[in-house]
Design goal:
With about 200 residues, the protein is α+β, with helices and mostly antiparallel strands. Among the domains are: about 30 residues, no CATH class; about 90 residues, Thrombin, subunit H, CATH 2.40.10. Helices cover about 20% and strands about 30% of the residues. The protein contains 2 helices and 10 strands; from the N terminus they run ββααββββββββ. The strands form 3 sheets. The protein has a 6-stranded antiparallel barrel. It has a two-stranded antiparallel ribbon with strand order 1-2. The model has no long low-confidence stretch (mean pLDDT about 80).
């Protein structure tokens, strides 16, 4: 049966390229697999290089088991284990140092206050008056903060009623309510302050 093209001409099968007519066949060359993994066919068999120690008809699971058995004989060197443990300990110490030095500190303006108590001789009432000193500044670590309260840790203690203004973008004034010693410093517990002094220099 003759096959025809769309234009009515007889369809011809493709023939070898005439340019390749005088091509010589390469012989005597070697293909190196370079220890690549074997090619696995659809039926599960693996095609391995000719110089491989494996059988040509091993499945992928058999090859995996062979590789697993080879690694069982490898025992870790005690000296390498010791060096690895030292490196891990050094890394841990470095991380702990980084955590200590990476504590975020906040610059805080402070208006120190001194509360004086006087007793009314006529009625016996105790009258408290606040006297403010010159503004100062310090560095503090803010431990917690809500809309109404704040706790910070500092190395310097200030008295009750002192006004603090942390330079952290919140633009809020705080008044020290209580203080307690902690880790060589002081934890200052503050509430919102109604007094808002200016700390402009």
């Amino acid at each position: 049966m003759t096959l025809y093209n769309k234009d009515g001409s007889v369809f011809k099968l493709s023939t070898p390229n005439p340019v390749m007519k005088d091509q010589k066949i390469w012989t005597g060359f070697t293909v190196h697999n370079m220890e690549w993994k074997p090619e696995v066919k659809e039926d599960g068999t693996a095609v391995l290089p000719l110089d491989s120690d494996f059988s040509l008809n091993k499945t992928q699971s058999e090859i995996f088991l062979d590789e697993l058995n080879q690694t069982k004989d490898l025992k870790p060197d005690p000296e390498q284990i010791f060096e690895r443990k030292i490196e891990e300990k050094e890394d841990k110490i470095k991380k702990e140092k980084q955590n200590k030095t990476d504590i975020e500190k906040t610059f805080v303006y402070c208006l120190p206050a001194t509360i004086r108590e006087t007793k009314d001789e006529l009625y016996g009432d105790i009258i408290k008056t606040i006297q403010y000193d010159k503004p100062t500044s310090l560095e503090a670590v803010i431990l917690s903060q809500t809309d109404m309260t704040m706790e910070m840790w500092t190395e310097t203690n200030f008295g009750e009623g002192s006004i603090l203004y942390p330079k952290n973008g919140d633009k809020r004034w705080w008044k020290i309510q209580t203080s307690q010693t902690k880790l060589g410093g002081w934890i200052l517990k503050c509430i919102m302050s109604q007094d808002q002094p200016s700390f402009d220099s």
